[in-house]
Amino acid sequence: MTSSFVLLVVAKAPVPGLAKTRLCPPATPAQSAEIAAAALLDTLDAVCAVPGAAPVVAMTGDLRAAARATEIGRALRRATVIPQRGRDFGTRLANAHADAAAVHAGLPVLQIGMDTPQVTPESLAAAIAPVRFHGHDSVLGPAADGGWWALGLAEPRHAQVLADVPMSRDDTGERTLRALGGCGLRPATTARLSDVDTMADAREVAAVCPHGRFARAVAAVGGRAVA
Question: What is the DSSP letter of 227?
Fold first, then answer.
């Protein structure tokens, strides 16, 4: 099947002590890494099942030291893997768009992270639909914490504006919208989602997708394992 857009996942190797540290406590570093690994694996399953999508993963960190390293390695065979590059997160996001576009020239890009494991093939297809089918030049998926979980661009070079947007703040979404508007874009919006930063977030998201790896990893914290 010919790909009609790039589905870009920006991901970090789930290494204990480095991944999802805000889940500690009540989670241990090992449990936090398991939750992060489960989130990445569930996300990759959804991404690779979207019709017309070319999966690309921009990865940072040492996968050899990661939780579920073997399983993640197998999952990544379904995608093109590129390294993240840049001095800060905004720059790495901008460069990931450029590098993904270099691999799949001429295609629009929908970029997500690994913090929304509740995504489905259907919700991802709906997120890029304003760009693919309705003539919009961009689309932003707001996050409940004031950031954003998805960015779609008809022309990936416009992601360069992200290099000047402060990330991981409660006004990152608003600032991103202003930056996109400042370069002449008129972003559509897609569904608001909660991403996973704290254990409260993790439990809320797990309740939305109770049958995946992520929910089982979250339930294991405190001994509440899911069969």
Answer: -
pLDDT band for 120, please (50, 70, 90 cuts): very high
E-assigned strands of the chain?
A: 5-12, 53-60, 80-83, 109-112, 138-142, 148-153, 188-189
Burial bucket for residue 213 (CB in 10 Å: 0-12, 13-18, 19+): buried
Q: Which residue bears the tokens 């489905």?
A: 120
Rounded to an integer, what distance in angstroms lies between the CA atom of residue 12 and that of residue 90? 14
**How far is the C-alpha of 40 from the C-alpha of 61, rounded, in Å?**
14
Task: Report the chain's terminal Cα–Cα distance, integer Å.
Answer: 37
Backbone angles phi, psi at 175, to 5 degrees: -65, -35
pLDDT band at residue 226 using 50, 70 and 90 as cut-offs: very low
**Taking residues 195-217, what's their average pLDDT?**
94
- For residues 42 and 132, give the distance between their C-alpha atoms in angstroms, rounded to a whole number: 24
On whether the pTM is more than 0.85, the answer is yes
The residues, ordered by sequence, that sit 6+ positions from 61 with a Cβ below 8 Å of its Cβ are 12, 13, 14, 15, 18, 19
Choose among 10, 14, 39, 11: nearest CA to 29: 14
pLDDT band at residue 1, thresholds of 50, 70 and 90?
low
In this model, does residue 145 exceed pLDDT 70?
yes
What angle do the packed helices 29-47 and 121-133 form, to 10 degrees?
50
Query: How many CB atoms neighbour CB 23 within 10 A?
Result: 24
